Amino acid sequence: MLRSGPVRSLARFTIPSSTYPGSCKASTLALPASKLSFPRIESTKRPRSLALTAYRPLPTSLQRWASTTSGPPFVEPDKKELKHEKTVAKEELEPHPEEVSSASSVHQIFHEKGTPDEEKDEDMLAGVYADLRVIKETFALNEVPREAFFIGLAGLLPYAATSLSTVYLAWDINHAALSGQGFLLSGESAELLLHIIEPLQMGYGAVILSFLGAIHWGLEWAKYGGVHGYRRYAYGVVAPAVAWPTLLLPVEYALIAQFSAFTFLYFADARAVVRGWAPPWYSTYRFVLTFIVGASIVITLIGRGQVVDKINRLPGPGDRLKQLRESQVAALEQEEQERRARVVAQDEAEEEEEEDDD
Hints:
Layout: H1 5-14, H2 26-29, H3 57-68, H4 82-90, H5 126-140, H6 146-155, H7 157-179, H8 187-221, H9 230-243, H10 251-275, H11 282-305, H12 317-357
Helix pairs in contact: 7-8, 7-11, 8-9, 8-10, 9-10, 10-11
Protein backbone atom coordinates (compact mmCIF):
# COMPACT_ATOMS: atom_id res chain seq x y z
CA MET A 1 0.00 0.00 0.00
CA LEU A 2 2.94 2.35 0.57
CA ARG A 3 3.61 2.33 -3.20
CA SER A 4 0.28 3.85 -4.13
CA GLY A 5 0.09 7.50 -5.18
CA PRO A 6 -1.97 8.91 -2.29
CA VAL A 7 0.16 7.21 0.34
CA ARG A 8 3.40 8.53 -1.17
CA SER A 9 1.97 12.04 -1.26
CA LEU A 10 0.97 11.71 2.40
CA ALA A 11 4.47 10.55 3.30
CA ARG A 12 5.97 13.64 1.62
CA PHE A 13 3.79 15.99 3.60
CA THR A 14 4.88 14.32 6.85
CA ILE A 15 8.52 15.19 6.20
CA PRO A 16 9.63 18.46 7.84
CA SER A 17 9.63 21.41 5.51
CA SER A 18 13.23 22.26 6.46
CA THR A 19 14.46 19.25 4.48
CA TYR A 20 13.39 20.74 1.11
CA PRO A 21 15.39 23.47 -0.56
CA GLY A 22 12.30 25.26 -1.77
CA SER A 23 11.19 26.00 1.77
CA CYS A 24 14.57 27.23 3.02
CA LYS A 25 14.99 30.70 4.37
CA ALA A 26 16.69 33.43 2.42
CA SER A 27 19.87 33.09 4.47
CA THR A 28 20.05 29.40 3.63
CA LEU A 29 19.56 30.01 -0.15
CA ALA A 30 22.42 32.45 -0.13
CA LEU A 31 24.90 29.70 0.79
CA PRO A 32 26.92 27.97 -1.93
CA ALA A 33 25.64 24.70 -3.31
CA SER A 34 28.63 22.77 -1.83
CA LYS A 35 27.56 23.63 1.74
CA LEU A 36 23.99 22.60 1.28
CA SER A 37 23.14 19.14 2.64
CA PHE A 38 19.81 17.48 2.44
CA PRO A 39 19.05 14.39 4.50
CA ARG A 40 17.81 11.36 2.71
CA ILE A 41 14.41 9.97 3.41
CA GLU A 42 14.96 6.91 5.58
CA SER A 43 12.53 4.56 4.09
CA THR A 44 13.46 1.26 2.58
CA LYS A 45 10.09 0.96 0.95
CA ARG A 46 10.59 4.14 -1.23
CA PRO A 47 12.63 3.96 -4.43
CA ARG A 48 16.15 5.48 -4.25
CA SER A 49 15.50 7.62 -7.26
CA LEU A 50 13.29 9.80 -5.13
CA ALA A 51 16.16 10.77 -2.87
CA LEU A 52 16.91 14.50 -3.11
CA THR A 53 20.27 15.72 -4.33
CA ALA A 54 21.97 19.12 -4.42
CA TYR A 55 20.13 21.62 -6.67
CA ARG A 56 22.54 22.35 -9.57
CA PRO A 57 20.59 23.69 -12.57
CA LEU A 58 23.52 24.64 -14.92
CA PRO A 59 25.36 21.26 -15.04
CA THR A 60 22.06 19.44 -15.32
CA SER A 61 20.97 21.55 -18.29
CA LEU A 62 24.33 21.06 -20.05
CA GLN A 63 24.18 17.30 -19.61
CA ARG A 64 20.65 17.22 -20.92
CA TRP A 65 21.66 19.30 -23.99
CA ALA A 66 24.67 17.05 -24.71
CA SER A 67 22.55 13.91 -24.50
CA THR A 68 19.81 15.20 -26.80
CA THR A 69 21.92 17.00 -29.44
CA SER A 70 22.91 15.08 -32.56
CA GLY A 71 26.04 17.20 -33.19
CA PRO A 72 29.55 16.79 -31.78
CA PRO A 73 30.00 16.55 -28.06
CA PHE A 74 30.02 19.72 -26.06
CA VAL A 75 33.43 21.29 -25.51
CA GLU A 76 33.96 23.87 -22.84
CA PRO A 77 34.81 27.32 -24.24
CA ASP A 78 38.13 27.65 -22.39
CA LYS A 79 39.55 24.38 -23.72
CA LYS A 80 41.99 24.86 -26.63
CA GLU A 81 43.44 22.51 -29.18
CA LEU A 82 46.90 22.31 -27.67
CA LYS A 83 48.12 19.60 -30.02
CA HIS A 84 47.39 21.66 -33.14
CA GLU A 85 49.00 24.72 -31.58
CA LYS A 86 52.18 22.77 -30.87
CA THR A 87 52.31 21.57 -34.49
CA VAL A 88 51.92 25.10 -35.83
CA ALA A 89 54.53 26.41 -33.41
CA LYS A 90 57.13 24.00 -34.81
CA GLU A 91 56.67 25.21 -38.40
CA GLU A 92 59.19 27.72 -39.74
CA LEU A 93 58.21 30.76 -41.75
CA GLU A 94 59.37 30.65 -45.37
CA PRO A 95 60.90 33.85 -46.74
CA HIS A 96 59.39 35.38 -49.92
CA PRO A 97 61.56 38.36 -50.86
CA GLU A 98 59.86 38.76 -54.27
CA GLU A 99 56.67 39.80 -52.48
CA VAL A 100 58.36 42.54 -50.49
CA SER A 101 57.85 46.03 -51.91
CA SER A 102 57.34 49.56 -50.75
CA ALA A 103 53.62 48.93 -50.45
CA SER A 104 53.76 45.41 -49.02
CA SER A 105 53.45 46.65 -45.45
CA VAL A 106 50.45 48.83 -46.24
CA HIS A 107 47.15 47.41 -45.17
CA GLN A 108 44.67 47.34 -48.03
CA ILE A 109 41.34 48.88 -47.21
CA PHE A 110 39.05 47.28 -49.78
CA HIS A 111 40.63 43.84 -50.15
CA GLU A 112 43.15 41.56 -48.53
CA LYS A 113 46.17 39.89 -50.13
CA GLY A 114 45.38 36.45 -51.42
CA THR A 115 41.68 37.09 -51.72
CA PRO A 116 39.91 37.66 -55.03
CA ASP A 117 39.49 41.30 -55.95
CA GLU A 118 36.09 42.83 -55.84
CA GLU A 119 34.11 42.87 -59.03
CA LYS A 120 34.83 45.94 -61.09
CA ASP A 121 32.05 48.36 -61.77
CA GLU A 122 30.21 47.68 -64.99
CA ASP A 123 30.99 50.13 -67.74
CA MET A 124 27.82 52.19 -68.18
CA LEU A 125 28.93 53.33 -71.66
CA ALA A 126 29.43 49.82 -73.01
CA GLY A 127 25.99 49.85 -74.61
CA VAL A 128 26.68 53.24 -76.20
CA TYR A 129 29.97 51.98 -77.65
CA ALA A 130 28.21 48.91 -79.03
CA ASP A 131 25.59 51.11 -80.71
CA LEU A 132 28.33 53.28 -82.21
CA ARG A 133 30.04 50.20 -83.63
CA VAL A 134 26.76 49.08 -85.18
CA ILE A 135 26.27 52.52 -86.75
CA LYS A 136 29.84 52.48 -88.07
CA GLU A 137 29.37 49.05 -89.62
CA THR A 138 26.05 50.16 -91.12
CA PHE A 139 27.48 53.27 -92.78
CA ALA A 140 30.55 51.38 -94.00
CA LEU A 141 28.40 49.56 -96.62
CA ASN A 142 31.01 46.88 -97.21
CA GLU A 143 28.60 44.63 -99.11
CA VAL A 144 27.45 47.35 -101.52
CA PRO A 145 29.16 47.33 -104.96
CA ARG A 146 31.71 50.10 -105.17
CA GLU A 147 30.21 51.60 -108.32
CA ALA A 148 26.75 51.92 -106.76
CA PHE A 149 28.30 53.23 -103.55
CA PHE A 150 30.23 56.09 -105.17
CA ILE A 151 27.48 57.05 -107.62
CA GLY A 152 24.92 57.09 -104.80
CA LEU A 153 27.12 59.37 -102.71
CA ALA A 154 27.64 61.63 -105.72
CA GLY A 155 23.88 61.85 -106.11
CA LEU A 156 23.64 63.27 -102.60
CA LEU A 157 25.89 66.24 -103.38
CA PRO A 158 23.11 68.42 -104.92
CA TYR A 159 20.94 67.86 -101.85
CA ALA A 160 23.78 68.73 -99.47
CA ALA A 161 24.76 71.78 -101.54
CA THR A 162 21.24 73.23 -101.69
CA SER A 163 20.65 72.61 -97.97
CA LEU A 164 23.89 74.28 -96.88
CA SER A 165 23.28 77.14 -99.29
CA THR A 166 19.82 77.68 -97.83
CA VAL A 167 21.24 77.84 -94.32
CA TYR A 168 23.95 80.32 -95.32
CA LEU A 169 21.59 82.55 -97.29
CA ALA A 170 19.15 82.58 -94.38
CA TRP A 171 21.96 83.65 -92.06
CA ASP A 172 23.07 86.34 -94.51
CA ILE A 173 19.50 87.67 -94.78
CA ASN A 174 19.24 87.88 -90.99
CA HIS A 175 22.64 89.58 -90.82
CA ALA A 176 21.53 92.15 -93.39
CA ALA A 177 18.28 92.75 -91.49
CA LEU A 178 20.18 93.43 -88.24
CA SER A 179 23.19 95.40 -89.51
CA GLY A 180 21.83 96.79 -92.77
CA GLN A 181 24.41 94.97 -94.89
CA GLY A 182 25.01 91.30 -95.61
CA PHE A 183 28.25 89.45 -94.94
CA LEU A 184 29.03 88.52 -98.53
CA LEU A 185 25.80 89.38 -100.33
CA SER A 186 23.22 92.03 -99.89
CA GLY A 187 19.85 91.12 -98.47
CA GLU A 188 18.15 91.42 -101.87
CA SER A 189 20.76 89.25 -103.61
CA ALA A 190 20.57 86.57 -100.89
CA GLU A 191 16.80 86.51 -101.16
CA LEU A 192 16.96 86.20 -104.95
CA LEU A 193 19.41 83.30 -104.74
CA LEU A 194 17.23 81.63 -102.13
CA HIS A 195 14.25 81.77 -104.48
CA ILE A 196 16.40 80.16 -107.20
CA ILE A 197 17.73 77.34 -104.97
CA GLU A 198 14.37 76.26 -103.59
CA PRO A 199 12.87 75.11 -106.93
CA LEU A 200 16.13 73.35 -107.77
CA GLN A 201 15.97 71.26 -104.61
CA MET A 202 12.30 70.45 -105.11
CA GLY A 203 12.81 69.44 -108.74
CA TYR A 204 15.85 67.32 -107.92
CA GLY A 205 13.87 65.53 -105.22
CA ALA A 206 11.13 64.68 -107.72
CA VAL A 207 13.73 63.31 -110.15
CA ILE A 208 15.34 61.10 -107.46
CA LEU A 209 11.97 59.73 -106.34
CA SER A 210 11.13 58.80 -109.93
CA PHE A 211 14.51 57.12 -110.34
CA LEU A 212 14.04 55.04 -107.16
CA GLY A 213 10.72 53.79 -108.48
CA ALA A 214 12.22 52.94 -111.88
CA ILE A 215 14.81 50.67 -110.24
CA HIS A 216 12.07 48.10 -109.63
CA TRP A 217 11.23 48.10 -113.32
CA GLY A 218 14.85 47.16 -114.05
CA LEU A 219 14.76 44.38 -111.46
CA GLU A 220 11.55 43.06 -113.00
CA TRP A 221 13.06 43.04 -116.49
CA ALA A 222 16.17 41.30 -115.10
CA LYS A 223 13.82 38.76 -113.43
CA TYR A 224 15.63 39.19 -110.12
CA GLY A 225 13.74 37.11 -107.59
CA GLY A 226 11.32 35.90 -110.23
CA VAL A 227 8.66 37.59 -112.33
CA HIS A 228 6.04 39.47 -110.29
CA GLY A 229 4.27 41.55 -112.91
CA TYR A 230 2.09 44.46 -111.92
CA ARG A 231 2.96 44.31 -108.22
CA ARG A 232 6.56 45.23 -108.95
CA TYR A 233 5.71 47.65 -111.75
CA ALA A 234 3.51 49.53 -109.27
CA TYR A 235 6.65 50.80 -107.50
CA GLY A 236 7.77 52.61 -110.63
CA VAL A 237 4.31 54.09 -111.23
CA VAL A 238 3.43 55.32 -107.73
CA ALA A 239 6.79 57.02 -107.06
CA PRO A 240 6.66 59.62 -109.88
CA ALA A 241 2.90 60.00 -109.46
CA VAL A 242 3.56 61.21 -105.90
CA ALA A 243 6.79 63.12 -106.59
CA TRP A 244 5.92 65.47 -109.43
CA PRO A 245 2.68 66.96 -108.05
CA THR A 246 4.68 68.25 -105.07
CA LEU A 247 6.13 70.93 -107.36
CA LEU A 248 2.72 72.60 -107.39
CA LEU A 249 2.81 73.09 -103.61
CA PRO A 250 4.49 75.88 -101.66
CA VAL A 251 8.10 75.23 -100.73
CA GLU A 252 7.53 74.09 -97.15
CA TYR A 253 4.69 71.72 -98.03
CA ALA A 254 6.57 70.38 -101.05
CA LEU A 255 9.66 69.50 -98.99
CA ILE A 256 7.57 67.85 -96.27
CA ALA A 257 5.69 65.81 -98.88
CA GLN A 258 8.94 64.67 -100.50
CA PHE A 259 10.38 63.74 -97.11
CA SER A 260 7.33 61.54 -96.48
CA ALA A 261 7.65 60.02 -99.96
CA PHE A 262 11.33 59.14 -99.41
CA THR A 263 10.51 57.51 -96.08
CA PHE A 264 7.59 55.51 -97.48
CA LEU A 265 9.64 54.36 -100.46
CA TYR A 266 12.46 53.22 -98.16
CA PHE A 267 10.09 50.98 -96.22
CA ALA A 268 8.74 49.63 -99.51
CA ASP A 269 12.29 48.83 -100.68
CA ALA A 270 13.11 47.15 -97.37
CA ARG A 271 9.98 45.03 -97.77
CA ALA A 272 11.08 44.12 -101.29
CA VAL A 273 14.42 42.91 -99.92
CA VAL A 274 12.62 40.70 -97.40
CA ARG A 275 10.52 39.22 -100.20
CA GLY A 276 13.64 38.55 -102.27
CA TRP A 277 12.80 41.10 -104.98
CA ALA A 278 16.06 43.06 -104.44
CA PRO A 279 19.64 42.25 -103.35
CA PRO A 280 20.22 41.80 -99.59
CA TRP A 281 22.46 44.87 -99.36
CA TYR A 282 19.88 47.16 -101.00
CA SER A 283 17.93 47.91 -97.82
CA THR A 284 21.04 49.08 -95.94
CA TYR A 285 22.15 51.09 -98.96
CA ARG A 286 18.76 52.76 -99.20
CA PHE A 287 18.71 53.48 -95.47
CA VAL A 288 21.97 55.42 -95.60
CA LEU A 289 20.93 57.43 -98.66
CA THR A 290 17.46 58.15 -97.28
CA PHE A 291 18.95 59.23 -93.96
CA ILE A 292 21.21 61.80 -95.64
CA VAL A 293 18.42 63.06 -97.90
CA GLY A 294 16.02 63.39 -94.97
CA ALA A 295 18.63 65.26 -92.93
CA SER A 296 19.19 67.66 -95.86
CA ILE A 297 15.46 68.37 -96.15
CA VAL A 298 15.19 69.02 -92.40
CA ILE A 299 18.17 71.40 -92.53
CA THR A 300 16.55 73.29 -95.43
CA LEU A 301 13.28 73.63 -93.51
CA ILE A 302 15.11 74.90 -90.43
CA GLY A 303 17.09 77.46 -92.44
CA ARG A 304 14.02 78.70 -94.25
CA GLY A 305 12.09 78.93 -91.00
CA GLN A 306 14.60 81.50 -89.71
CA VAL A 307 13.74 84.01 -92.46
CA VAL A 308 10.12 83.22 -93.23
CA ASP A 309 9.05 86.64 -91.95
CA LYS A 310 11.91 88.58 -93.64
CA ILE A 311 11.54 87.59 -97.28
CA ASN A 312 8.85 87.94 -99.87
CA ARG A 313 7.31 84.64 -100.78
CA LEU A 314 8.22 83.49 -104.24
CA PRO A 315 5.11 82.89 -106.39
CA GLY A 316 4.44 79.21 -106.66
CA PRO A 317 2.75 77.25 -109.43
CA GLY A 318 -0.62 77.84 -107.81
CA ASP A 319 0.01 81.55 -107.69
CA ARG A 320 1.02 81.51 -111.34
CA LEU A 321 -2.16 79.65 -112.29
CA LYS A 322 -4.21 82.16 -110.33
CA GLN A 323 -2.37 85.03 -111.97
CA LEU A 324 -2.90 83.49 -115.40
CA ARG A 325 -6.59 83.07 -114.74
CA GLU A 326 -6.89 86.64 -113.51
CA SER A 327 -5.02 87.91 -116.55
CA GLN A 328 -7.32 85.95 -118.84
CA VAL A 329 -10.38 87.40 -117.14
CA ALA A 330 -8.90 90.89 -117.42
CA ALA A 331 -8.15 90.31 -121.10
CA LEU A 332 -11.71 89.16 -121.73
CA GLU A 333 -13.08 92.20 -119.92
CA GLN A 334 -10.82 94.51 -121.93
CA GLU A 335 -11.84 92.81 -125.15
CA GLU A 336 -15.48 93.16 -124.23
CA GLN A 337 -15.02 96.83 -123.47
CA GLU A 338 -13.28 97.39 -126.80
CA ARG A 339 -16.04 95.54 -128.65
CA ARG A 340 -18.69 97.65 -126.93
CA ALA A 341 -16.72 100.79 -127.77
CA ARG A 342 -16.62 99.78 -131.43
CA VAL A 343 -20.37 99.06 -131.44
CA VAL A 344 -21.06 102.43 -129.85
CA ALA A 345 -18.79 104.11 -132.38
CA GLN A 346 -20.59 102.39 -135.26
CA ASP A 347 -23.99 103.40 -133.89
CA GLU A 348 -22.89 106.99 -133.56
CA ALA A 349 -21.51 106.98 -137.11
CA GLU A 350 -24.77 105.61 -138.51
CA GLU A 351 -26.79 108.23 -136.65
CA GLU A 352 -24.62 111.01 -138.09
CA GLU A 353 -25.11 109.65 -141.62
CA GLU A 354 -28.88 109.56 -141.17
CA GLU A 355 -28.88 113.17 -139.97
CA ASP A 356 -26.81 114.25 -143.00
CA ASP A 357 -29.26 112.53 -145.35
CA ASP A 358 -32.20 114.30 -143.79
